[in-house]
């Protein structure tokens, strides 16, 4: 079985202090949309955040909410908490600023990871790896812990220390490149743009 983990530890400075996971997308927040998508595939969903009080009012007890062991050290610290505390041996990890995550793509990554017997399967789009839509082996938490101990917080350094397999996922997606499952929103302008693109794409299908 698979655990889904949403990393929601960023401070959202470029969003004017608004938490990216709580931004509205269609008729729900981004994180609610992510949870709904993850539950199509995952037996368990975890939210990793150092601000649980912001999420409890909308999520309640629907998922597990955990915090970083070492807060304030970026995605790698959140991945460490997720992999360490996940119930299942494989974990699909995403960032909370990705409104279009895909259970179809995650299922394919999970399949590749098992077939290749790799420590992770990472999506690649336009030649670029996207670690925050990857499926990871729980046992990789030990490698992350070693890096955190020496104050090395880069996700790519972690990937270079494990056996991962990159998967070109563009052919798996039905939407165009601008609405890829790995698209994220870091600024108000990026957020408004993806909302507009998604609304336009949805309108064209009705």
UniProtKB/TrEMBL annotation:
GO MF term list: GTP binding; metal ion binding; molybdenum cofactor guanylyltransferase activity
Source organism phylogeny: Bacteria, Bacillati, Bacillota, Bacilli, Bacillales
Function: Transfers a GMP moiety from GTP to Mo-molybdopterin (Mo-MPT) cofactor (Moco or molybdenum cofactor) to form Mo-molybdopterin guanine dinucleotide (Mo-MGD) cofactor.
Reactions performed catalytically: Mo-molybdopterin + GTP + H(+) = Mo-molybdopterin guanine dinucleotide + diphosphate
Source species, domain of life: Bacteria
Location(s), subcellular: Cytoplasm
Residues binding Mg(2+), per UniProt: 97
Gene Ontology biological process terms from the UniProt entry: Mo-molybdopterin cofactor biosynthetic process
Family: Belongs to the MobA family.
Keywords: Cytoplasm, GTP-binding, Magnesium, Metal-binding, Molybdenum cofactor biosynthesis, Nucleotide-binding, Transferase
Name of this chain's protein: Probable molybdenum cofactor guanylyltransferase
Enzyme class, broadest EC rank: transferase
Cofactor(s) it depends on: Mg(2+)
SUPFAM superfamilies in the record: Nucleotide-diphospho-sugar transferases
Keyword Cytoplasm: yes
Predominant place of localization: cytoplasm
Domain MobA-like NTP transferase residues, every copy: 4-154
Record note on domains: The N-terminal domain determines nucleotide recognition and specific binding, while the C-terminal domain determines the specific binding to the target protein.
Residues annotated for GTP binding in this entry: 7-9, 20, 68, 97
Pfam family, one: NTP_transf_3
Assigned EC number: 2.7.7.77
Gene: mobA
Coiled coil: none
GO cellular component, one term: cytoplasm
């Amino acid at each position: 079985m698979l655990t889904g983990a949403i990393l929601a530890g960023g401070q959202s400075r470029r969003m004017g202090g608004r938490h990216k996971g709580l931004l509205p997308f269609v008729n729900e927040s981004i994180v609610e949309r992510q949870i709904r998508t993850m539950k199509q595939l995952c037996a368990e969903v975890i939210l990793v955040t150092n601000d649980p009080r912001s999420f409890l009012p909308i999520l309640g007890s629907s998922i597990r909410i955990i915090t970083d062991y070492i807060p304030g050290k970026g995605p790698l610290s959140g991945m460490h908490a997720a992999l360490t505390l996940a119930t299942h041996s494989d974990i699909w990890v995403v960032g909370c600023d990705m409104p279009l995550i895909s259970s179809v793509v995650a299922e394919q990554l999970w399949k590749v990871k098992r077939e290749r017997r790799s420590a992770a399967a990472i999506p690649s789009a336009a030649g670029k790896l996207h670690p925050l839509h990857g499926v990871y082996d729980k046992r990789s938490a030990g490698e992350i812990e070693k890096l955190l101990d020496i104050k090395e917080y880069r996700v790519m350094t972690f990937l270079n220390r494990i056996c991962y397999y990159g998967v070109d996922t563009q052919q798996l997606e039905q939407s165009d490149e601008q609405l890829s499952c790995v698209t994220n929103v870091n600024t108000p302008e990026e957020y408004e743009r993806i909302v507009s693109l998604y609304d336009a794409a949805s309108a064209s299908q009705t």
